[in-house]
Amino acid sequence: MASAKAVPSEKRTAWIKWACSAVVVLGLLLFFYPREKVELNDQGYDASVALYRICNQKDGTSLQKVADQIVQWRSDGTLSEQSHSSLQRVIELASAGDWRQASRECRQMMEDQVQR
User: Fold this and answer.
1) Long-range contacts for 41-47 (Cβ within 8 Å, ≥24 apart)?
2) Suppose 102 and one of 22, 79, 94, 111 were both cysteines; which one would form an S-S bond, judging by CB atoms 3.0 to 4.6 Å apart?
3) How far apart are CA 111 and CA 116, in angstroms?
4) CA angle 57–59–62, rounded 5-degree value
5) What global pTM score does this model have?
6) Residue 62 CB: number of other CB atoms within 10 A?
7) What's residue 30's pLDDT?
């Protein structure tokens, strides 16, 4: 004897299709969500190139040297605020050991400069 609370397979299938469609739509929205492009000044671009190399090589010593240089440029006023905050994000990721994500962020920053 079937339970009165049992969901017919047609309703279950329709619900699963709806849920999967919602997940796909949400994923596409997140993937194509427009993000703000980073505009680097000359110092910032040079630092992003150096950081990209450092992140690919997972070179902690060079990371610290570039981080110190970025702080110096910021205090000198030769590095814009947007450049500084974007580069700091990469340095924090790399310092935490997330070299792959730090490398991706650098790559995206450099691509943003070409696509302006």
Assistant:
1) 41/78, 41/79, 41/80, 41/83, 43/73, 43/78, 43/79, 43/83, 44/79, 44/80, 44/82, 44/83, 44/84, 44/86, 44/87, 45/110, 45/113, 47/73, 47/79, 47/83, 47/87
2) 94
3) 9
4) 125
5) 0.67
6) 15
7) 65
Return the amino acid letter for 55: C
**What is the torsion angle, in degrees rounded to the nearest 10, for the CA atoms of residue 105, residue 107, residue 110 and residue 114?**
-120
Q: How far apart are CA 83 and CA 109, in angstroms?
A: 9
**Consecutive 10-residue averages of pLDDT for the chain (116 residues):** 60 83 78 70 89 94 94 89 90 94 91 74
Domain residue limits, the chain: 42-115
Q: How far apart are CA 95 and CA 64, in angstroms?
A: 9
Residue 107 CB partners (closer than 8 Å, separation 6+): 52
